[in-house]
Structure to design on (291 residues):
């Protein structure tokens, strides 16, 4: 009797941090439990935890690529070499590209293969939704259009809204694979602090609009309304300094147990982002029962 080999899944991302990292941690853990063979090709960012290996299931092989920087062509070549090394004969290989840059470079890197593998692409938040500057937004949308036709691939949105946007770009409709929340977030025992705590979570960057959260904290101070504002995460140093100047406590990167403790102490969760796919942080706060 012929026995089909276990599926071999190659995850690829150039930004192993924040929501993308948390989503991959859970997905790879559940796939490992289901018997899938997995490799994670990744690059570090400044906010990637130093002990990132310890955060992933030991059954997941992790291969570190050099940081992306601005050497896009060289990075695409390194990515191609790493992906081709996983395409051994006799294995049922699926490549899953995570984030916009890995999605674009990864699909271009796979062009020209005689027997290309199955390819999935999850942007985890589309770059062209950044409306700060019109020209880059138009350019990013055009790059998504090109990449969708460079290699046969299936786009995967983390929400129905993101999937609808992807379907409007590619030649085929997109799938939906909603972000999942670890069961333990449903078991958080609420223990609200006094005074009330207003919490948000994510990378401190332009997308998350930290200046809006800082303004809220400052307005509470000016109005002499007792409340504590907490930003769970780390990121841009200047934006972090602005938050702290407004009285916001910026935790830096914390593990899941600390996240759950902070959510348990909070009274309300606020998301100030300019754009999102479907933030895992919001789902975790909802699971914890926070308004």
């Amino acid at each position: 009797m012929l026995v089909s080999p276990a599926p071999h899944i190659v995850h690829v991302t150039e930004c192993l941090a924040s929501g993308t990292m948390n989503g991959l941690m859970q997905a790879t853990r559940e796939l490992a439990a289901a018997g899938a063979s997995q490799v994670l090709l990744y690059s570090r960012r400044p906010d990637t935890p130093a002990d990132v290996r310890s955060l992933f299931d030991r059954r997941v092989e992790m291969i570190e690529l050099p940081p992306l920087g601005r050497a896009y062509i060289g990075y695409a070549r390194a990515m191609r070499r790493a992906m081709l090394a996983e395409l051994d004969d006799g294995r049922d290989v699926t490549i899953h590209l995570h984030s916009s840059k890995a999605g674009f470079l990864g699909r271009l890197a796979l062009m020209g293969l005689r027997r290309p593998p199955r390819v999935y692409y999850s942007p985890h938040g589309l770059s062209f939704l950044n409306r700060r500057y019109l020209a880059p937004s138009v350019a990013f949308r055009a790059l998504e259009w090109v990449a969708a036709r460079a290699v046969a691939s299936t786009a995967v949105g983390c929400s129905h809204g993101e999937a609808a946007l992807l379907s409007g770009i590619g030649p085929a409709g997109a799938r939906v694979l909603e972000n999942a929340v670890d069961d333990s977030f449903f078991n958080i025992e609420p223990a609200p602090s006094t005074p009330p705590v207003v919490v948000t979570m994510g990378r401190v960057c332009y997308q998350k609009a930290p200046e809006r959260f800082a303004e809220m904290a400052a307005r509470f101070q000016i109005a002499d309304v007792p409340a504590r504002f907490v930003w769970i995460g780390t990121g841009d140093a200047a934006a972090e300094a602005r938050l702290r100047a407004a009285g916001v406590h910026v935790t830096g990167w914390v593990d899941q147990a600390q996240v759950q403790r902070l959510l348990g102490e909070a009274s309300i969760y606020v998301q100030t982002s300019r754009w999102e796919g479907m933030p895992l942080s919001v789902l975790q706060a909802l699971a914890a029962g926070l308004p």
The mean pLDDT is 90. The chain has ten helices and eleven strands. The first helix runs from residue 18 to 33.
